[in-house]
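Lecture notes, unit on binding sites. The following record was shown on slide 14. It pairs a sequence with nicotinamide-adenine-dinucleotide.
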Amino acid sequence: MSSLNSPRECVLVAGGAGFLGSHLCRRLLHEGHHVTCVDNFLTGRLHNIASMADHPNFLMLRHDVIEPLRCDIRPTQIYNLACPASPRHYQADPVHTLRTCVDGAFNLLEFARQSGARILQASTSEVYGDPHVHPQPEEYRGNVNVVGPRSCYDEGKRCAETLFLDYGRQNDVHTKIARIFNTFGPSMAQGDGRVVSNFIVQVLTGERMTVYGDGSQTRALCYVDDMIEGLMRLMNSADDFRGPVNLGSPRESTILNIAYRIRRLVGSDVPIEFLPLPADDPVRRCPDITVARHHLDWEPKTDLDTGLKKTIAYFSELMADVSNSHAA
Ligand code: NAD
Ligand code: UDP
């Protein structure tokens, strides 16, 4: 099955000006769909959607999803990606993050019911918290701190999953849930504190690389194009398959290994500085993607170095543009 074979749809992407959302909007437009991007620009940027702004099939609505969505558009598909994803941003206003997760999900589900659209929730590996089972299969129930600094996001996303399932059943709305694991690529925001963007920018600017803890904690990094393919396959999957389904790379690396890789790929020898590990930072994380392989015929295709090289090229160009504009 390929997402390329889907009929022409009218698609609403909430969070479409963010990192994943802007890639998704671009891919959908490329495939001939009509796209409405809904975003409050909390962490999204006009820069991410600038290349689509004049496209005849693209519409941008500035809106906060914690408020009900009232507009004339009748989408056939809704992707709910609206939520800050980086700890730095989702911890800045935890109550708003929770409301975005829960009220935002509710408002978009209501809109899906009114429109007759199917709706996909961008959930997260954070629903597993600091996992005791490794790698994490979908049936693992997780180890989440209810009252920690990451809880507004983790518990908000867990509640949104429950809401998606219950609302879908009670109101006959077709829901899908993707549990997204760490994803990286061009258009990540430079200052949002995520590991790949931090390390690349630090190496390119000759700063020390900030490794939290001793760097032995693990993550499995998925390249953005693979993630978008997975999300679209899930949206267009069989009616009786609703998830939750893990989407991510099954290849786990330590954070220190990721730091060394990025340094090697840039050809730099900047020093590494070890800083305290943030509270509740998961020790190991890696998805079991058996379900995605089976139901979506999906697995990531891009190897880590190839993805990192593309991301390094993006940030190099971005920083060259900035220094040229300062010089002008
Ligand atoms: P991002 O911060 O780049 O994008 C989120 C977008 O949502 C931004 O454009 C932001 O302005 C918008 N937004 C936030 N709150 C909103 C609100 N209340 N109303 C309207 N718009 C709002 O993050 P991303 O990495 O693109 O993540 C997209 C989605 O995928 C998020 O839901 C996130 O939880 C999920 N996810 C991402 C990752 C990852 O590694 N990138 C991992 C797990 C889950
Ligand atoms: N991390 C790090 N240095 C940084 C940014 C992040 O060592 O400059 C670590 C962080 O502590 C975590 C991992 O990298 O263990 C992934 O962090 P990120 O914020 O990208 O994602 P998440 O913690 O949400 O998986």
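Take-home: The longest strand covers residues 118-124.
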